[in-house]
Amino acid sequence: MIRAYKFLMRPTVGQTQALAEMLRDHCSLYNGALQERRDAYRHVSKAGITYGMQSAQLKEIRAFDPERQGRWSFSSQQATLRRLDKAFQAFFRRVKSGGTPGYPRFRGVDRFDTVDFPKDGDGCRWNPTPHDPVTRVRVQGVGHVKVHQHRAVAGRVKMVSVKREGRKWFVVLTAEQDQPDPLVATGSAVGIDMGIANFLADSGGGFVPNPRHGRTAAAKIEAAQQDLAKFPRVRRDKRTANHRRAVEKIAELHGRVRRQRLDHAHKTALALVRKHDFIAHENLRVRNMVRSVAPRPDPDKAGGFLPNGAAAKTGLNRSISDAGWGVFLTILHAKAESAGREVIAVDPRNTSRTCPACGHVAAESRTTRETFHCVACGHRAHADTVGAINVLRAGLVRREAQPA
C-alpha cells in the first residue's frame, strides 16, 4: 500500500531563497509549455502538442538557459510538464462528458507551490546521511536541508515533493509499504449520518459535535480581509511590506482553519475505525450539494429576477464546506484500509424519511430538523439517529449482496 508523510523543513536563509527560485523556474517552465500548446493549437495544428514532444525539448531548454533551467533536476521538470499534460487530459475529459471545461490557466509565482521528484535519489534524496542525528533532505541546486521528522517513515520512499505553504516549507514523502496487520476484530457495525448541527450521528445514538472551525475564525478572517482591502491594487513588484504582511495574515488564518479541520477529521475517523469492524455512510456528492442556486428570470419583467433562496443556500453551502465531509470520508476510507476494516457507501435517498420500526416512508414523519415522528406507527427518535440506523441497514444489505 502507499502512504504519504509530511514533514516541516527548516531551511537557512540562503536555502529558502534557492527553494523560491526553484519554484519560480518550474512555474516559468509550466507557463511556457502552456503557451506553446495554446499557440500550436491556434496557428499550427488542431492535433496540438503532447507531453512527449515537450519533454524531448527539455535538453535544449536546459542548454539554452543553464542559469535558470539547467541547474534543476531533469526528472522534476518532466514532472512539471506531466502535471500540465494531466490538466489538459482532465480538460478534454470534462468537455466530452458535458461538464464545465475549465481550460488550464497560467500560474502566478505565488500560486505555484509544489515541485515533484518522481524517484527518490533523482534530484532529491530523503535522509542521505542516516548516521547523522539530524534528518535532512538533499535537493539538487539547494543543498542539504534540515527536516523536523516527528515520526518514523515505514517502507521504501518512492517519490519526494517539496511544498511551500505561506512562509513554511514541507517535504512530502510517498512511501510503499507492506499491508499492516489488521486491528483486532470487535464484532461491531455502525452507520453514520453526516449533518450540520452535529458533525455526525451514529446508529447507536451517539453524536459528534460540529466544531465549526470556519465560523469560529470568520470574524478574524473578515477583519484581516478588510485590512487588506485598504491597500490600493498595484502590480506585484510594487506592493509594500505592509501589503505582503496583510496577505500573509489571511493565508495564516486560513491555514490554521484547514489544519484544525484535518485534525478533527483524523481523530474522528480513527475513533470509528478502532471501535467498529464495519462502517456504512451515505454516498454524498458534496460538489453537487454546494452548487449555487440558478437564477429565476421574471417572465413579467424584462431583466428582472424572482426570489430563488440564494441567501439561504449560500449559508448552507458555507456550513457544508466548513464541516469538511469530503475530507473526512476520504480519511475514513484510508484509515479503514490500513486497519483492515470495511467501509461501504449507500444511497442516501429517504434515509431520514424511513421509519426504522415499521418501514413507512413519508416526508411528514420528520417534523423538525431534529425530531422524527412516524405518521404510521408513532415511533419517535432523533432524526439523525434514524438516518444512521437506515444507513447501517442499507450497508449490511449491500454487503450481503456483494459477490464473494
Describe this protein's structure.
The chain starts with a strand and ends with a helix. The chain is built from eleven helices and 16 strands. The strands form four sheets. The chain has a seven-stranded antiparallel β-sheet. The protein has helices at 13-44, 51-56, 58-64, 74-97, 213-216, 218-229, 241-275, 286-289, 310-323, 325-339, 383-401; strands spanning 2-10, 114-117, 124-126, 136-139, 143-148, 156-165, 168-176, 189-194, 198-202, 207-209, 278-282, 296-297, 305-306, 342-346, 371-373, 380-382. It folds into two domains: 2-176, no CATH class; 189-401, no CATH class. It is globular and about 80 Å long. A hairpin with a 3-residue loop joins β8 and β9. The mean pLDDT is 92. The longest helix has 35 residues, at 241-275. It is of the alpha+beta class. It comes from Streptacidiphilus alkalitolerans. One of its GO terms (molecular function) is endonuclease activity.
Question: How does the SSE layout of this entry go?
Answer:
Layout: E1 2-10, H1 13-44, H2 51-56, H3 58-64, H4 74-97, E2 114-117, E3 124-126, E4 136-139, E5 143-148, E6 156-165, E7 168-176, E8 189-194, E9 198-202, E10 207-209, H5 213-216, H6 218-229, H7 241-275, E11 278-282, H8 286-289, E12 296-297, E13 305-306, H9 310-323, H10 325-339, E14 342-346, E15 371-373, E16 380-382, H11 383-401
Parallel strand pairs: 8-11, 11-14
Antiparallel strand pairs: 1-5, 1-7, 2-6, 3-4, 4-5, 6-7, 8-9, 9-10, 12-13, 15-16
Helix pairs in contact: 1-4, 6-7, 7-10
Family: In the C-terminal section; belongs to the transposase 35 family.
Pfam family, one: Cas12f1-like_TNB
Keywords: DNA recombination, DNA-binding, Endonuclease, Hydrolase, Metal-binding, Nuclease, Transposition, Zinc
